[in-house]
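Weekly structure sync, notes
Attendees: PL (lead), two postdocs, one rotation student
Agenda item 3: pending single-chain targets
PL asked that the sequence for the first pending target be pasted directly into the notes so everyone works from the same version. It is reproduced below exactly as submitted, 383 residues in total.
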Amino acid sequence: MLARAIKYNLIIICAMFLTGCSHDDVTTEITPCEPVAISFMPTLAPTLAEGEETTRAGQPGVMNSEDLRTTGFGVFASLNENQTPDMMYNQEVEYTFVGDIDKPANDPQIGYWSYQPLKYWPNGLNSLSNFFVSAYAPYQNLPIDDSGTGIIGISANNVKPTITYRRCDKPNEMVDLLWYYEKPNSIPAATSEHAAGTLAMKMRHALTRLEVNVALASDPGTTKVLVEEITLTGTIAKTGQLCLYDQDIDDSGSEIKYYPKWSVLTTDSHTFTISNKDNDAESYGIIDSQVRYIDGLPYSWQPAGLTTAAKNTLSTGDRKTYIYLIPQSTALTLTVKVKYKKWALGASAPTAGEKTTETSPTTIASPLKGNTTYKLNLTLNDI
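Predicted structure, written out during the meeting:
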């Protein structure tokens, strides 16, 4: 471990000598006398409340910074007006752990990002230069199996870079997707946190997230209400293509918002099923077999059943996940059915048989934007 740390410190020292004729702790300009190496420092744009990004790579839920360090990311870079990746094409950038994983994400005592072969910033870079950088995560080796779900394709190296994605219908197969795009107009100067030439990449979530919440309209009193199943049916994008060299920006409010650009390739009529059955292969609700269940429902719902406080039907324990959808320019309209049972407190069987309530087709959003969470709030009235 000590030898690796010494090696990494030597790499940092060498990088400092390559950044210019002189080096200060913080510089505002770069006049290189040697080529400046391109390095990357990715972070995730904050889109969720603290504590919600709790999953690990390969598990359902929102990818967080630790996941990103595990999966790595792919980079495309272009030096031509056609924006074809002639400088970097699906370049894998990996994270190497060297020390204390409890340090902040950009602390070199944790580790460092690297790739091979090393590339250098173009000389004379300015706002008119045809230099484009984009990235995605999780990284995918080529060739890609196009029969699965998640990332099923990456464009060829003679066209603008795109990612082809197929919707996952089950949470244990769900793959989050991150994206980044920028057109640098100068070589990044050194800061107190980064060496010169380090591109600080703020990655964002490219998919739409749908949160499904259920509550009672009134206090159930001595009745316990347990949801058996929720189904959501509609015509939904099945596969889509994410453009990596473009994005929509909304700067009309106090906060600038970034939205990915998608092209829908195929759609289908699909039913998402959220079930309390632990062994239901088609269920979207059972996502963690290690979670304790009470009366067939995930632990987070509590043994008392539903109340007037909304409960997220896709939460199990301390994990929060969503139905992930491909953004689309058309409206997302869903028909929702809720099956539930009512129990008298202390009873060993339901006081009434299984009941079903159905909504008329409900428009969730039009258009359906990426990097956005929508909430579908369901209220049971006839309790």
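Discussion points:
- Residues 2-18 form the longest helix (17 residues).
- Residues 1-32, 47-60, 279-302 have pLDDT under 50 and may be disordered.
Action: rotation student to compare against the earlier draft before next sync.
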